[in-house]
């Protein structure tokens, strides 16, 4: 009976939602809304049992939204609050990262000048309790909800530390954690590199601070790989740094607002050769940025075809703190091409599993109707399926063996780091590596580390391929660089040794003739 009721509630809510909006069917809309109200009245007044309608309605809303496009979504109150926190780039917490290893929460990073650092929390500390509650074996989401809370509130952590025989007690006062969207920034000779992980509100400000910190660079690489997007305003602000005043950045076309154009309203700040890195996980605001740079012939796009998420969502609150992210428009790049790739209503899983879209530079069907030209130099570009790079790179990293890939996917690298730092002395490493560049010159792995690898993988290190050994060596050195010198040093080590896409971008910027040839469409 409950299953039947779920179906009825799903059906009537779907009918009500589908009907709202079309002015030519106002009388039909009103009849459906009245029908919906009547059904609820009958369930409440006449049904044999008391029925909690809340869970049924929530499930019905989820089912209805699922039948729309792949990016519309229902959000509970908790999910909506989390989304807004991400968009602001801040939250109230303790300022650390962690992972579960052997059913125990292990601290993997402590933010500088955070409550966690001020309290004395250290890398590789094991958190065994939170406010007296045993947390061994519970999932990461539950841990996160325990650690976060209102600003100024306190929590008590029970800590196990390898250097201490007894359990430690650490008291922490939560505060607002400012989370920069800039993941790394460094120089490779005269070329600057800045990586952004999302498009949260302060992105452009953080970006310019890192850019000025690089000094007098002659060219710039902006890495948006795996950047899933964020706020359109942040995309507009970041793009404005590179385009001329008055240049169109993006436009939206929808039902509520038929056409809205976003233009650069300020003088550009950076006018040097530019390469933008994208991949199949670069989406939404990342694609707005890359599309505008490409359409204005402002820089070269390198990597793999982007995700193809060109739908605009607006959040509508439902009165109880929950809400729906409803698609209300489509993005268009300055040349007029659509970013969104094709999808079938109600088939979001098939849409997300579509991996062929980025496996080859010609994976998009280059329909003449979807062909556009760039605004300054008239190069051919295509719409309807993400942003196709000007220079396609098949893989970002060397092809490790299937065995190594399986090890990595099972969490080998993270586990190796934990085991490594349990027995390592930071002071010794600091003496051995005075600068992070020193980590570039050492490719051999110590015997002690080989023992850890063999213990975790149950395989002989000597049997690994040369590429596998290089990959493992690089990841280990990158972790050491991260702990000694910060995230930028970690990314620098990976980028210089095994990141073929970054290497290609550097090669391009070191050859002004090739850079100009690509922008001229002469390839």
Envelope shape: globular
- What structural class is derived from the secondary structure elements? alpha+beta
**What is the gyration radius calculated from CA atoms?**
26 Å
What low-confidence regions span 5 or more consecutive residues with pLDDT below 50? none
Through-space gap between termini: 66 Å
Which percent range fits the helix content?
25-40%
Helical element count? 18
| Biggest pleated-sheet summary | 6 strands, antiparallel
Q: Name the beta content range.
A: 15-25%
Nearest-integer average pLDDT: 85
- How many strand segments? 21
Oligomer: single chain
Protein architecture, described:
- With about 525 residues, the chain is of the alpha+beta class.
- The chain is built from 18 helices and 21 strands.
- Strands 3, 4, 5, 6, 7 and 8 form a 6-stranded antiparallel sheet that branches.
- Strand 11, helix 7 and strand 12 (about 220-225) form a beta-alpha-beta unit.
- The protein is globular.
- It starts with a helix and ends with a helix.
- The model has no long low-confidence stretch (mean pLDDT about 85).
């Amino acid at each position: 009976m409950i299953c039947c009721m779920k179906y009825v509630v799903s059906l009537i809510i779907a009918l009500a939602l589908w009907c709202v909006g079309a002015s030519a069917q106002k009388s039909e809309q009103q009849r459906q809304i009245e029908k919906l109200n009547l059904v609820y009245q009958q369930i409440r007044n006449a049904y044999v049992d008391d029925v909690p309608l809340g869970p049924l309605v929530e499930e019905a809303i989820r089912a209805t939204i699922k039948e729309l496009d792949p990016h519309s979504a229902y959000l509970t109150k908790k999910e909506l609050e989390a989304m807004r926190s991400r968009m602001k780039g801040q939250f109230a917490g303790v300022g650390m990262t962690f992972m579960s290893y052997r059913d125990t929460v292990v601290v993997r990073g402590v933010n500088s000048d955070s409550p966690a650092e001020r309290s004395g929390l250290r890398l590789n500390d094991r958190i065994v309790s939170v406010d007296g509650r045993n947390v061994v074996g519970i999932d990461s989401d539950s841990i996160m909800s325990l650690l976060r809370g209102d600003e100024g509130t306190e929590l008590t952590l029970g800590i196990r530390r390898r250097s201490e025989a007894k359990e430690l007690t650490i008291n922490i006062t939560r505060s607002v954690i400012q989370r920069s969207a800039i993941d790394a920034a460094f120089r490779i000779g005269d070329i600057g590199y800045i990586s952004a992980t999302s498009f949260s509100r302060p992105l452009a400000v953080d970006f310019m601070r890192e850019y000025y910190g690089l000094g007098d660079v002659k060219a710039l690489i902006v890495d948006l790989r795996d950047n899933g997007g964020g706020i359109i305003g942040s995309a507009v602000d970041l793009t404005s740094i590179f385009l001329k005043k008055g240049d169109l950045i993006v436009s939206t076309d929808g039902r509520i607002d038929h056409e809205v154009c976003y233009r650069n309203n300020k003088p550009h700040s950076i006018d040097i050769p530019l390469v933008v890195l994208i991949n199949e996980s670069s989406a939404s605001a990342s694609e707005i940025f890359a599309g505008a740079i490409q359409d204005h012939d402002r820089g070269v796009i390198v990597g793999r075809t982007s995700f193809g998420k060109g739908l605009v969502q607006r959040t509508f609150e439902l009165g109880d703190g929950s809400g729906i992210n409803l698609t209300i428009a489509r993005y268009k790049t300055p040349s007029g091409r659509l970013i969104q790739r094709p999808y079938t209503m109600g088939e979001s899983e098939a849409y997300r599993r579509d991996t062929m879209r980025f496996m080859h530079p010609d994976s998009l069907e280059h329909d003449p109707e979807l062909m556009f030209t760039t605004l300054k130099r008239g190069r051919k570009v295509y719409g309807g399926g993400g942003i196709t790079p000007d220079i396609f790179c098949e893989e970002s990293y060397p092809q490790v063996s299937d065995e190594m890939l399986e090890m990595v996917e099972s969490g080998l690298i993270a586990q190796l780091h934990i085991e490594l730092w349990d027995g390592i002395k930071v002071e010794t490493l600091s003496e051995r590596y005075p600068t992070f560049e020193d980590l570039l010159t050492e490719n051999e792995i110590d015997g002690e580390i080989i023992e850890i690898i063999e213990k975790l993988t149950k395989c002989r290190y000597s049997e690994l391929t040369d590429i596998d050994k290089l990959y493992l060596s690089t990841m280990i050195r990158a972790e050491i660089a991260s702990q000694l010198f910060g995230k930028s040093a970690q990314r620098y080590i990976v980028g210089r040794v095994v990141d073929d896409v970054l290497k290609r971008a550097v090669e391009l910027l070191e050859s002004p003739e090739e850079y100009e040839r690509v922008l001229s469409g002469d390839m």
